[in-house]
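Consider a concrete sample entry:
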Amino acid sequence: MSRRVARVAEALQETVAGLVQREIKDPRVGMVTITRVSVSPDLRNARVYFSRLGSKDERERSLEGLRSASGFIRSQVARRLQLRVAPEIRFELDDNPEYAARMADLLGHADVPETGEN
């Protein structure tokens, strides 16, 4: 992978993650994490992998919501990254078991403040 492709993939991941977190209002999307982005050498296609804790049905709904928002996301990516050609964005569920196990472990060890309620 060339340095340019790697830089574009990294910038895409940051931009898409920010868009999903702050600007996508589709309730189907829910709490997703953009895990990685793979960009073709000609920068015309990008696969955006995401993860979501929950049932298979919830993950499928998230995928539908992200695919529905892909046109908006593509236009925002083109504008924010000032690319000559905005890549066609395809969302895919990242079923990497190592990532899921790591997230579950992190959530299990998260410090939850006490509310004082019993």
